[in-house]
Amino acid sequence: MPVGPVFLVDLFPGLHAQLSSLLRGLQPADWARPTACAQWSVKDITAHLLDTGLRRLSHSRDGFAPAPDRTIASYADLVAYLNHLNAEWVTAARRLSPPLLLDMLDLTELQLHAFFRSLDPHGRAAFAVAWAGEETSPNWFDIGREYTERWLHQAQIREAVGAPGLDSRAWLHPTLDIFVRALPFNYRHLDAKVGESVRFEIRGEAGGVWTLKRLGEGWRLFVGSDPGSGATVSLDQRAAWKLFSKGLSRDKARRSIRIQGDSRLGEPVLGTLAVMA
């Protein structure tokens, strides 16, 4: 069965409550701890999360969308522009206190959830999910992408301060279910015969099994196994979310992933990203 829509809107309040509780319990020194995001501290990631919510509400709810200050003619241009916006905000937000950031984040996430709930999940999203190769996306996929960003940044904060991760099935499986949808686009350049397929298994409570199959129009992702798959790619759930989010180098990814069968079919997984990078 092909992968279908997933509706994650109702997870946003609980996910934010987990983050807010964690951040409000931090010691002053914790805010300066380095994270897996290059050159960003715990406080910087918190500021970035606030920025993403404010930008989304301003643009998509309020229709306030200043034109970019540069030409965006390619995916690389878009990534560079977003990186510029992110860095600009994080630098300015270093002037703000953690309590003020938290109060603003609580307010913004409340409004963001209400806005997402107001959308037709099957309507056209304001932003396509570019890492999946889409030029237009339904709202449910765009909202799912927003969920994964919030889960991921919270995971990075939790790692930085030594807090337990949100790795139960309730929180992590939705993230992985969205992330694996990057696979068909990532495989687009692999020369394969129609009917060839790859079984993709994520081990752990939050994991699952998917099959990527080459059809006439390109690669397509299915839920479950195909007994005729030419290769099986297997990795645990922690390695999976790190792989998709640029948290593993190619060498570390290679050591974390088991490829059985035709390595030509399994190798492209190592370069899969479900974030803008």
> How many β strands by DSSP?
5
Using only C-alpha atoms, the radius of gyration works out to 19 Å
Number of domains: 2
Tally of separate helices: 10
Please give a handful of descriptors for the protein shown:
277 residues; alpha+beta; Four Helix Bundle (Hemerythrin (Met), subunit A); Nonspecific Lipid-transfer Protein, Chain A; 5 strands; 47% helix
Structural features, described:
The protein has 277 residues and is of the alpha+beta class. It folds into two domains: 9-166, dinb family like domain (Four Helix Bundle (Hemerythrin (Met), subunit A), Up-down Bundle), CATH 1.20.120; 183-271, Nonspecific Lipid-transfer Protein, Chain A, CATH 3.30.1050. The chain has ten helices and five strands, in the order αααααααββββααβα. It has a five-stranded mixed beta sheet. Helix 1 (12-24) runs antiparallel to helix 4. The two termini are 30 Å apart.
